[in-house]
Fold:
Amino acid sequence: MVAAGIAAATALHYLTSPSLLLWHELFQRLYYLPIIYAAVLWGWRGGLLASLTSALCYIPHIVLAWRHVNPGYAMNQYAEIIVFVLVGTVTGVLSDRGRQQREELEAASRQLADMNRELQDSVEQIKRADRLSAIGQLAASLAHELRNPLASIDGAANLLDSPQTPEETRRSSLAIIHKEIQRLNRLLTNLLDFARPRKPEFRPAEAGRLIDSILSLTAHAAQEKGIVLRKEVPESVPSFECDPEQMKQVILNLAINAIQAMTAPGEVVFSARQRDGSVVLCVRDQGPGVADEDMERIFNPFFTTKEAGTGLGLSVVYQIVSRHGGIVKAGRTSQGGMEFSVIIPQRQGGGK
Structure:
């Protein structure tokens, strides 16, 4: 293509009458196209070779057509040949430099890609190790949680099996068996909810109505302990997209956690507010709070500070909130109790 371009420009010169000076000026500029093309393709060597070839093809025409007819114009054409060489060489040098930079960038890109693959492999190995460690801790915690009620059931069954056991002791033993069976049932239910969470079915919900449903469910348990349940939800709080049943489970778990944590009469406050495109649901109690050294572990499976707790309630809360694209935070209040805040986007999937 370079040779064809030079040949075409040369032929046009030779076949055009010298009297058509304007056309010769145009044909002279056509040499730059193959010169620049060669410089871009093959660097300064290609640009220099193409410019010298163009000069060798053009000089005879200068000698034959302009040397005697128009000597001043001929000198101008010789100067143009110098420009051919300069343009071809400079363009080639710039092309070589650009090509070298591209090669360096490609090499750096390949090196980064290799490093990224190695990093991904390392991350996957760490994840696998973490999963194995979590499974081991989960199995150990589950065995511990199952052992306690089973030991109570075994002890109560032995008392029932003994003919010397008084009737009153038999009744209390049966009550222990029923209580521990219910405890095991709660543990297994929470474990199934944690291990096989249902995919959320998003639809609009109102924070006030969700809280009202939980207040009615927990009113009796709170009243038995002298706890007042209070709701603080301004009318300005908008509806938000969530799975209402799962969000009720979140609030219920936090409510049960708050009521069980309080050892004296007091108040549990349920509140909601809007913040930066999200709805924030809060449950605040007046219990003793969580020790600072335990704050980082309260969402871990089977971690509990209560004697009868399963340690899965807050883990289920964390899991559901995460599947809603939200976050859950825990902190101590100025009165020493705990406040759990659930932050859920108003629109799921990035909708406006």
Q: What stands out?
A: The chain has two domains: 1-196, 203-350. Residues 149 and 180 are 5 Å apart (CA to CA). The longest helix spans residues 71-161. The mean pLDDT is 82.
